[in-house]
Design brief:
The chain is α/β, with parallel strands linked by helices and 238 residues long. It has a single domain, classed as Vaccinia Virus protein VP39 (Rossmann fold), CATH 3.40.50. 38% of the residues lie in helices and 22% in strands. The chain has ten helices and seven strands. A seven-stranded mixed sheet has the order 3-2-1-4-5-7-6, sandwiched between helices. β4, α7 and β5 form a beta-alpha-beta unit. α1 crosses α2 and α7 runs parallel beside α9.
Length: 238
Amino acid sequence: MEKIRKLKKYYNNINIELTDRQAEQLLQFYSLTLEWNERMNLTAIVEEDEFFLKHFIDSSLLAGCLDMNGVESLLDLGTGAGFPGIPLKILFPSLQVVLVDALNKRVQYLAMACDSLGLEGVVCIHGRAEDLGHDTLYRERFDLCVSRAVSELPVLVEYCVPFVKIGGSFVAYKSKDVRKEVEMAENAASLLGARLKAVHEERIPETEILRTFVEYEKTGPTPDKYPRKSGKPSKKPL
């Protein structure tokens, strides 16, 4: 099938060999997203090649700069239409994944999509980081927290680091020169028990789009007062 060959070619360009099953799941997820995009605003990107590159490949580039073999649990904060969490789950089926979004109808869609795709070990949660970050079910429970949300790093660090186990990682997907943001987030990372580990830059194949991954390592427990109450992290970053 032409679409499977195309998808496998794109993944080969980032040194990932898709199985037929993984390619079929990704294609099914694309179809579901298009179908449900007519009922709710999931994505402005609908053209096939653009969707494959800017959603699937972009989500999956993380595997080229982070060793996923030791990652057993992942939380995707502000997952939106399921990126990067669902493509990462398809690539690494043994991952235990929690998808979190603040819009309930999106969460309901994601739960349906995961069921349709036959993905086991995925939990879809409606909630906000400021609340879930204090819930013992989620606080300091994850090997890896990722976010492709648009908030600046000082805010994302406060939202995401509380979910990460000591020794685990938080990785922010960023789309521009992040030097200034990284400097701005130094204080937040220190207060939350994390340190900057690496900044990785990858190009989406067949485009000029650069994706920057900012990786923080959790080095100690996050103080109980973080994350602060709803609205504070964005209004008054650490």
